[in-house]
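Hi there. Long-time user, first ticket. I'm pasting a complex I've been working with (about 881 residues overall). I'd like to know whether the download I got is complete or cut off, because the file seemed smaller than I expected. Thanks.
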Amino acid sequence: MEDVIARMQDEKTGIPIRTVKSFLSKIPSVFSGSDIVQWMIKNLNIEDPVEALHLGTLMAAHGYFFPISDHVLTLKDDGTFYRFQTPYFWPSNCWEPENTDYAVYLCKRTMQNKARLELADYEAESLARLQRAFARKWEFIFMQAEAQAKVDKKRDKIERKILDSQERAFWDVHRPVVSVSLSTRLWYCTENWTLMRNTSFIDESVYGLQNDVRSHSPTHTPTPEVKSYVCSATFPCHPCSLLSYTEQYMEYDPFLTPPDPSNPWISDDTTLWEMEASKEPSQQRVKRWAFGINEVLKDPVGREQFLKFLESEFSSENLRFWLAVQELKKRPIREVPTRVEGIWQEFLAPGAPSAINVDSKSYDKTTQNVKDPGRYAFEDAQEHIYKLMKSDSYSRFIRSSAYQELLQAKKKVQLLGAPRQRSRLDVDALGPLRAGRHRKSASTLCSSGFRESVDVLSSTAFIPLHVSSVIYGTLLPSLI
Amino acid sequence: MLFSPWCALEEQFIANVSSPASAARARRSGRVGLATASRSTSDPHPAEMATHELHPNDTLTTLKMESENLKAKLEEERAKLHDVELHQVAEKIEALGQFVMKTRRTLKGHGNKVLCMDWCKDKRRIVSSSQDGKVIVWDAFTTNKEHAVTMPCTWVMACAYAPSGCAVACGGLDNKCSVYPLSLDKNENLAAKKKSVAMHTNYLSACSFTNSDMQILTSSGDGTCALWDVESGQLLQSFHGHGADVLCLDLAPSETGNTFVSGGCDKKANVWDMRSGQCIQSFETHESDINSVRYYPSGDAFASGSDDATCRLYDLRADREVAIYSKESIIFGASSVDFSLSGRLLFGGYNDYTINVWDVLKGNRVSILFGHENRVSTLRVSPDGTAFCSGSWDHTLRIWA
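Hi, the file is complete. Here it is re-exported in full:
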């Protein structure tokens, strides 16, 4: 990736960077989204602008360049302006920032010129939380922030502008805006956010969602209406995870939320079961898939959809490998040796038709295991592939248009009938996206208003990714 | 290195005490690295302390004392990492409303005490077993009996439905677990197709299919659990560690998980790794036999019901008990527990003929259900959570919703 960036930044053959005059001030060192796409098509042998867009979005998600006006880390093929990230902040430097660094940064922001750099709601909340968490060290953090602010003041105004935006983008990557209220609460509960992000044991739906939000395009401020239990715990708060799980699934629990159309045991009507058995998944069911990769893998229809999506991306071998190994573990012991051989030939042997990508350590171990085949021969490889799917393919699936369509297709039908799902959708989100720092609590729309907005959204081309995740995010049931 | 002849004895004590060595194993299987890391660096490694040189003079009593000391130290360490109480955090959630749960179906047909039941994945069929050796498969929705098998032994204490819905497994005093394939032909003699899978040296207390029809996990009065290959009857893995009869087990609900929890008469609930056969976590806070264990739907916690009239919730990541569900007025043991789909409700069947419904997070009882005329012996929530079934010594099963 960095080679491509270097080429992009090249003075002569790279993307033209210019200073744009806008209103009263000059915007230094920017280039537009369409510039990037054009350059990529020309220089990287990409034919399809969609592919270029996709590649660009991925690079933006990692923080190599960013839009200057809002926190959304994606690429848009139009006139919106972007800036390159300074190499100091590149991910390859393997600098995983600590919460203390974030605290210093936020503190420094508050000391600077308020009008220009006011903290967004989510940033203010995290600052408050960090202040509580670091109560003992706060003086020290404050001093550091002061020192940094002093240095900044000495710099040239334009240079400062650039650096500020780059720093902000860096933190957007490492401390993204969490749009889903549930995840926000979770995030507040943990001291060590990076630990949560990197630990492999978190495979359950609740924490899974947190993981995926990182690569999500951050959206506008989350709805502060939501009750947040910011508990005083400083360790990873386990009771909160139980709470969040329960809350997330409350609408699916027939004892707490009467099922739609009816509970078969009470009404003697088996429509509910017939609906579940049909190939058409209900909106509720589709929504559940977004809770975590386990939900998708558990539901046969979800698996099918996921597989279809991956096939369209030509990366279905990962999921097929995972499914094959699961199947292997379910077979009688007699069949194990032949199946192990079959899986090896299909996925891992040199020159395999559906070759998967595993790290060398797992590969060596698997090679050893295959010589003495047992049910757990592919355990390491499977774990690696699972993590890969969870962090990469799964999040793309949830953001994909196929998934969003499934989610929205039933929504319209749902809204006509059910007033109980109040949607908290930001009205402003329908217009051109702006830096939403000053936005306060979202308005509650009535169902007809929402219906209109769905139609508007489906027609405008450039909104899908962000706003649909907003819709998706805010349609999670309001806290009871 | 220990050369003392007390080696083996000492090792047994170590095995029984859940030492930070097992915490290290738990770390591998994926617990919070933060918590365990700080624990192991804070104090001199207790396991090391215990493996000091043993003198031939050390008697049973001194070793026992050392074991008790280590246990106390462990509790201390666990308490240090304890942050917030579940009930404290749960105060901010809204309380549950009134529940109206009634018996929607009553299944009559067993001639004697119903001991165990299980749901089929199709959400309407159940299999139940009783003291007179009968195993019946019902369509609970229509209350029709679909199959009936008579086992050669009495007290069939365990039964399970295969995930495909094509077979049932059962066992009890015959020390075996047998699998019967279910055929659509009602006239066919099912008993003829029986396949003996598990062989224990004492009664079979619980059995469960893993994710497939091809493997069965069993627990037995001989103190062990075992994983068997159904087709060949081969023992795939055995699990040793309980000091007394193992009464119950439950598999973790995750797609990728490889663990299960078991509870026994030694008052301990152990969490096992199916692949290695090791006990990765152990909890000993009950005051009497643990009759039933069930995972919380997310797989991060489990509940247990015991003869000491309490149900308790254990959090696997925090590695401790986080809630006790008890009342002064409840003095009879809980024989069976299960969670509702979201994990907010815990249903407990008790020996005083009632079913208590607990709010898992807040810790209070939300409802008490009457209807059975003898002790409730088994209780399971249906796979989609729309209802739960309870079986009792009054020869009937009831579906509640």
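A couple of notes from our side: DSSP finds six helices and 28 strands in chain B. The mean pLDDT of chain B is 85.
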